[in-house]
Structures are given as structure tokens and as C-alpha cells.
Write a structure and sequence with these properties.
By secondary structure, this protein is an alpha/beta fold. It has helices spanning 11-21, 36-46, 62-72, 86-97, 115-129, 138-141, 149-152, 184-193, 214-223, 277-288, 305-313, 331-337, 347-362, and strands at residues 2-7, 27-33, 50-53, 76-81, 102-105, 175-180, 203-207, 228-231, 242-245, 251-254, 260-263, 292-296, 317-321, 343-345. Helix content is 36%, strand content 18%. A hairpin with a 5-residue loop joins strand 10 and strand 11. Helix 8 (184-193) packs parallel to helix 13 (347-362). The termini are far apart.
Length: 363
């Protein structure tokens, strides 16, 4: 039985969530908190398996409450946010950077004739989240310092990863491709915020998240890094000092001349996540061969494993987030087990390696 604590100051939203969850097999609503202070107290008392967290609340908001819960009694926290409110979304991603593991839309559709669909999606997400390990983020979020230039350039051992014997020390990728799902947004923020101004290698990102959240996620990442971060469109090109994020309703493939192609999902391929990490990695293998760098981050399922293996077969460099730091060691595990991953690293070590590659590019 999954014990759920609902944290929400709106009586209407409280009632909707309770109605959606109360008769669902395998889920028990153990309490309702109307503000962040109550949320922290009830987490200590009730020890829920999962918390649904509002962002704007009196006394203690969702970001502060998430931070305190993760410090005092860590558990799985799912942020429930309104897509219609850009300020709400910006704060929602802040909550992910302090320990929340997922972001989903408020279930207002239940009031608009989509009750069964909203119920099915909400319960599906919450039941999947029970696989997440909330303590994983605590293994690296407490050491968030950015590698200084001397560390990144090999003069300080503090930031170095274990020796990567398979990766040439002078390796400079033409493109960095990153894919992730549950638990990955906070890692993306850690990676991008740790890169130097003028980072010399283009970055392309595929993140599994509700389609309507992608523009706000890109804006949040843009605010956290000296790089320019935006959502890809048909005119996008790969540029140094910039990262592009696949839109939530299209696949993204790399093509010649530093361009990208957006591919609409096919009805007959409903089993393929949109956007697909495999499609990004496979296109990187086709276009950039051994000059690509593929990185697979925390997430459920196996998306990205086959594509990363295709990259490795072309002698590209392939990295995976390590098990200890992964909120969900699903996608990295699948890639490691099929032989696609050359080395597993923590987010901190990934930042170090990207610094080193940037320095190689400057030589």
C-alpha cells in the first residue's frame, strides 16, 4: 500500500485529489496538509511513502517545505503545478532542484469531463514514483560547488573522476547529447550551472516530462547557467555556448550541417516515449559518429539504451549516471547492461569531464 500525503491549500484541489485517489487499489491517502509547516510535521508523524506538493502556500511554501522534508525526513515528493501559471511553473522547477522527483499538472481536467483519464494518469504516475529513491539526490546535492578553472584543467584532484582509461584524454566532441527522465531535471540543472561561460560544445537535451512543462523547464535551465537554453524548433542549429531542448510533442533528430529535424510521433508507435532519447542518440551516431558524446541520466524504463549503444559502436564516448546518484536507476542501468556505457559517473564528475573537454577544445 502506497501511503500518500496531500499538501495543498486549495480546498477544491484537495477534494479533487482525494476523490481521484481514495478508492484506488494500492493507494491510501493518509493525511492532508494545508501549508508547508503542516506538511513537515505530518511527514515526521505519518511517514508517507509519497507527498503531492503544492507550490504556493501560506506560512511555508512548497520549495521551503520540500527542502525541509528532504533534510529532516526524506521521501518522494511530486510537485503538482498549474501549466497556465508561468510563475507557478518557475517555482515548481526550483522545488525539483532541492529534492522533488517529479512534476505533474494539477488535475483540473477532472472537472471538465475527463475524470477517468485524469484519474488513470495521476495514479499511474504516483505508482511509478514509488520506484524512485529520494535519498539518491542527497548524495550529490550537498556538494554543488563548481569546479574552478584549475580543477577542471587538471591541476586539482578534488573534482576528478576515476580514471577513464577508455576515453582519450584529448577527446573533444562535436556535440553533447543528454537524455533523461524521472530525477534528471535536477541533474541537468547541476550540469548546466557548472559549465563555464562560452562553453565550446553544443548541447542537445531530451527530457521526458509533460509536454506543457518543456518551455518553462528550458527557461528555468536558462536562468541557472551562463549558456543559452531554449526549446528546439525547425530553425534550430547547434551552436557553441547553447543548449537546445527537444519539445515535448516531437522527437528530435540531428541532421547534417549542425541542424536538427523535429519528427512528429506516429500513432502506430505508441510504445515509444515522446520525445525519444533513442532517436536522439541514434541520429548522433549516424551524423557525428565517433565525434559525439552521449550521456544518459536518471529515469525509468529503457529509452536511450539502444541509441547509446549505436553511438558506442561508432566509437563515440558514452557516459551514464551512476546508480548511487540516480533517483531511478532504470535508463542508465539498461544502457550499462547492454554494454552501451563506457563509464558511470556522478553529476559532479560529469561536470568535471565536460570542463576538461572544453579545455581541450581551447588548446
Amino acid at each position: 500500500m502506497i501511503k500518500v500525503l496531500i499538501v495543498e491549500d486549495s480546498i477544491v484541489t484537495q477534494r479533487i485529489l482525494v476523490a481521484l485517489l481514495e478508492d484506488e487499489p494500492g493507494i491510501e491517502v493518509v493525511g492532508i496538509a494545508e501549508n508547508g509547516v503542516q506538511a513537515v510535521e505530518m511527514c515526521h508523524k505519518l511517514q508517507p511513502d509519497l507527498v503531492t506538493m503544492d507550490v504556493y502556500m501560506p506560512q511555508l511554501d512548497g520549495i521551503q517545505a520540500t527542502r525541509r522534508i528532504m533534510q529532516e525526513c526524506p521521501t518522494r515528493i511530486v510537485i503538482i503545478s498549474s501549466m497556465a501559471n508561468s510563475a507557478d511553473l518557475a517555482r515548481s522547477f526550483e522545488a525539483m532542484s532541492v529534492g522533488a522527483i517529479e512534476l505533474i499538472e494539477k488535475p483540473y481536467g477532472a472537472l471538465q469531463g475527463n475524470y477517468s483519464q485524469v484519474k488513470a494518469e495521476l495514479t499511474r504516475v504516483l505508482k511509478k514514483m514509488i520506484q524512485a529513491r529520494p535519498l539518491a539526490q542527497l548524495t550529490w546535492q550537498s556538494t554543488r560547488s563548481t569546479p574552478p578553472a584549475e580543477a577542471a584543467y587538471g591541476l586539482d584532484n578534488e573534482f576528478k573522476s576515476e580514471p577513464l582509461d577508455q576515453i582519450p584524454r584529448d577527446f573533444v566532441p562535436a556535440v553533447v547529447c543528454i537524455g533523461g527522465s524521472t530525477g534528471a531535471p535536477a541533474v541537468l540543472e547541476r550540469i548546466l550551472s557548472g559549465l563555464p561561460d562560452g562553453f565550446s560544445i553544443p548541447i542537445v537535451i531530451v527530457q521526458h516530462i509533460s509536454s506543457g512543462f518543456v518551455p518553462s523547464m528550458a527557461a528555468w535551465l536558462d536562468s541557472c547557467t551562463p549558456l543559452r537554453v531554449g526549446v528546439a524548433d525547425k530553425a534550430s542549429v547547434l551552436e557553441p555556448g547553447a543548449a537546445i531542448v527537444a519539445p515535448g510533442d516531437h522527437h528530435l533528430r540531428l541532421v547534417r550541417d549542425r541542424k536538427v529535424r523535429l519528427v512528429p510521433p506516429q500513432p502506430e508507435a505508441r510504445h515509444i516515449p515522446v520525445p525519444s532519447v533513442d532517436m536522439l542518440f541514434e541520429s548522433a551516431a549516424e551524423v557525428y559518429g565517433g565525434h559525439g558524446l552521449g550521456i544518459i541520466l536518471s529515469g525509468m524504463g529503457t529509452d536511450g539504451a539502444a541509441g547509446l549503444l549505436a553511438m558506442r559502436h561508432t566509437r563515440a564516448v558514452t557516459l551514464g549516471q551512476d546508480e548511487t546518484s540516480s533517483v531511478v536507476y532504470g535508463m542508465p542501468k539498461a544502457a550499462a547492461e547492454n554494454g552501451a556505457v563506457m563509464q558511470e559517473l556522478t553529476p559532479r564528475q560529469i561536470v568535471y569531464e565536460l570542463h576538461r573537454m572544453h579545455y581541450n577544445c581551447q588548446k
